[in-house]
Amino acid sequence: MNRLSSDLRALGRPLAALTALTALTALAAAAPQPAPASAPPALPLWELGVAGAAGSQPAYPGASQQVRRALVLPYAVYRGPLLRTDRGGLGLRALRTPRFELELGVAGSLGSSSSRIEARRGMPDLGTLIEAGPSLRWNLASSEAGGSWRLDLPLRGVFDLSDGLASRGLAFEPALRHERRSGAWRWSASAGAFVGDRRLGSTFYGVAPVYATAERPAYEAKSGLIAWRLGSTLGRRITPELSLFATARLDSVAGAANRASPLVKQTTGWSAGLGFAYTLRSSNEPAAD
């Protein structure tokens, strides 16, 4: 193992905390803002606060066991003309027009121990993953009465923080999203697909011969569709500082490239979570938008 890999392994815990903070920053930024009937408010350039979330989700698409977590962490939101820490993670805005936005972004997801997942027992853990790459947003339609529609097209490299930032492949996650506001309420829905290359498919579904058992035969994963996804988020501004929100998502591996993997135990799985965001301080200067 080289020195850089060793150093990155030593940084595993704080980087995992950063990944969790990135996720909470995205949730906090997605919490509803006060919305007058006439026009949406001007958001502050930056916000500092505390965000928390608790939820349950499948260990991976097609898993039969859920992973439950609860986190409370500080968050920071910055809505500059180039640097952004809202709407999905950390990013650098490369292009913005009324119709299109192009960002170079970073997002993250926490891993799970294989010792807690019966189908993967004895196999390597699913590590804490960081995703980085470009994301194109196509604003399709927007009106005060009908809400907004957009198409998100993120293409990201996936890296494992638990293994010295080793590459885990490429992920493409196109999604059609609809969002509405009504007073202090905000609702959104999305439908999309999660597609990965062969290396990412192997991360979730591959079974090397050394890990094969009578109940879990060796399996060589393929590239292609990992899962279909339907999601929804509902949020409400309780006070100028406090927002509450709930999320739900349904995943399906029907027709997925690795549906035949012995690690796939069921076709559909659900995720759900509750959270809050409390703003401690914010700027008087409005955002760059």
Can you give keywords for this protein?
single chain; about 290 residues; mainly beta; Porin; 13 strands; globular; disordered N terminus
Describe the 3D structure.
- With 289 residues, this protein is mostly beta strands.
- The protein has a single domain (3-35, 48-282), classed as monomeric porin ompg (Porin, Beta Barrel), CATH 2.40.160.
- The protein is built from three helices and 13 strands.
- It has helices at 3-10, 12-30, 198-205; strands at 46-58, 66-78, 83-84, 90-96, 100-109, 129-143, 147-160, 166-172, 175-182, 185-196, 224-237, 242-252, 268-282.
- Strands 1, 2, 3, 4, 5, 6, 7, 8, 9, 10, 11, 12 and 13 form a 13-stranded antiparallel beta sheet that branches.
- The radius of gyration is 20 Å and the shape is globular.
- 32% of the residues are buried.
- Mean pLDDT is 83; it is low at 1-22 and 33-39.
Here the CATH topology equals: Porin
Task: Give the name of the CATH superfamily.
Answer: monomeric porin ompg
**Helix run count:** 3
The strand count comes to 13
**Average pLDDT reading:** 83
Q: Could you give a short account of the major beta sheet?
A: 13 strands, antiparallel
CATH architecture: Beta Barrel
CATH class, named Mainly Beta
Q: What spatial form do the alpha-carbon principal axes imply? A: globular
Strand content: over 45%
